[in-house]
Design brief:
alpha+beta, 7-stranded mixed β-sheet
Length: 167
């Protein structure tokens, strides 16, 4: 590759690249369900910009290119919702998704007081389910997305004490 992938907090300048990347990455998810109206594919650029400005958003960069991203928010009871984890298809399988998750978890726990991490993934999303289980998430229930896709709800407790924010 010649360059290493770095993980950092997203900036306003990253919003358009995140928007394009998520559209590319979630095509395979949409194909799994025969539903091209899933949230990551219909989200507006302005909405992505708002998330970058107000949420906990991390990106993976290869040089100047955003090749991965993840977002999270924390509610009043300390539960962090993590979502829209994506890695460019040409770089999947190299640990970038796990690094993005660790970065988001670290910031959500360390800076925003999260005690529990929760995420939703499509019930047919085998690669996502493998990743989430490998990094300690356990299925706690099911739900249905606004787009009608059956989802598996997974959770993981934040470690007690300080949380390492290195990726």
């Amino acid at each position: 590759m010649g360059m290493s992938v770095t993980i950092s907090v997203a900036t306003e300048r990253d919003a358009e690249q995140i928007f394009r990347l998520q559209y590319l990455c979630f095509q395979s998810e949409a194909a799994l369900y025969g539903n091209y109206r899933i949230d990551p594919l219909v989200q507006s650029l302005d909405s992505v910009r708002a998330e970058v400005a107000g949420d906990c958003v991390f990106v993976a960069r290869l040089g100047d290119e955003v090749v991965g991203s993840v977002r999270g928010t924390t509610d009043d009871d300390g539960t962090a919702a993590i979502g829209k984890l994506c890695v460019h298809p040409r770089l999947q399988g190299h640990g970038i998704g796990a690094r993005l998750l660790r970065a988001a978890e670290g910031a959500l726990a360390g800076e925003r007081g999260a005690t529990t991490f929760r995420l939703h993934t499509g019930h047919r999303s085998e690669s996502g389910l493998r990743l989430y289980r490998r990094v300690g998430y356990q299925a706690v229930g099911t739900s249905k997305g606004d787009d009608g896709v059956p989802m598996i709800v997974l959770e993981k407790q934040a470690p007690a004490g300080s949380y390492a924010t290195t990726a």
